[in-house]
Amino acid sequence: MREGKMAEEKDLYPFGSAPLNKRRELLVVPLERKLVYEEVVFPKTGFARIVKRGQYFRIVDVMGKQVADLVLFNAHNTKEKHNNGISMSRQMRPEEVKPGVPYSRKSILTTRDIIFSTGERPMATIVADTPVPGGTHTLVGHMCNRAIYEMYGFSDHDGCWEILSGVLAPFGISPEELPDAFNVFMNVEYEAVSGERHIKEPVSRPGDYFEIRLEMDCIVAFSNCPEDALTPCNGWRCTPLKVEIYEAIEGK
Predict the structure, then answer these.
(1) Which helix (H) or strand (E) holds 56?
(2) Rounded CA gap, 204 and 199, in Å?
(3) How far apart (Å, rounded) are the C-alpha atoms in residues 194 and 97?
(4) Which of 116, 132, 215, 217 has the smallest number of CB atoms closer than 10 Å to its CB?
(5) Residue ranges making up the domain that contains 193
(6) Which pLDDT score is estimated for 131?
(7) Is 24 inside a domain boundary?
(8) H/E element holding 165?
(9) Phi/psi zone of residue 45: left (φ > 0), alpha (ψ -120 to 50 degrees), beta?
């Protein structure tokens, strides 16, 4: 399901005025919510839809071990998009910052962490992350594409890059504008000495989910990763994912 662009709406934070110096509120998710949209996204296909600020966007791993390459764009200015590097290096909280103490970066993002934009503004807050251990997602590296499959002798095999390009085209977003994805459920091990990265099978089980609360109106898109030829990225088989979008019930 795809939608066109929305009418202009005032952003929560002006561009360039990142609220990094503001104390973060406690993460509160309403106990009662209503499901406003759901869709099964079949293997080797993609999804793109405008999700409004305050809505909750959930990706459910239906059968387990299936990766989603997730990207976010500001629905009113698609030049602003999510940025993994900023997200990994801006998770410090004002109350934790002390003069003379160097700040640290995070390579793992999970519940309560924020996905920031290229303007260093909050795009989404992670509110649920049920695989064990939580935070088993990959934020480093480029998504698969037809070129890498062809290099290894697999012709006519689209990658996440082609799938995302297709579902985002109706929004006027060109392939060259795609950021590196937030790879939900992707399990990569790092070797500190050699610097090598090894793709492992995901730890996500049937029914596990990853959920974000949108902090601005966003075009939310993902590729149901088609990788079944080169690595155990999806456990050597591609399976469905499910989208669920929730809204809080007023007064609850």
Answers:
(1) strand 56-61
(2) 14
(3) 33
(4) 132
(5) 41-95+103-248
(6) 96
(7) no
(8) helix 160-168
(9) beta
Token pair in block for residue 180: 């590196």
pLDDT tens column, 66-82: 999 999 999 999 999 99
DSSP state of 123: E
Residues in the chain, total: 252
For tokens 């406003």, the residue is: 36
Q: Model confidence over 105-159: pLDDT tens digits?
A: 778 899 999 999 999 999 999 999 999 999 999 999 999 999 999 999 999 999 9
Distance between CA atoms of residues 97 and 166, nearest Å: 43
Q: How many domains does the chain have?
A: 1
Write down the pLDDT at residue 22.
Answer: 53
Give the amino acid at 158.
D
Q: How far apart are the first and last CA of the chain?
A: 29
Q: Which residue matches tokens 């007023």?
A: 250
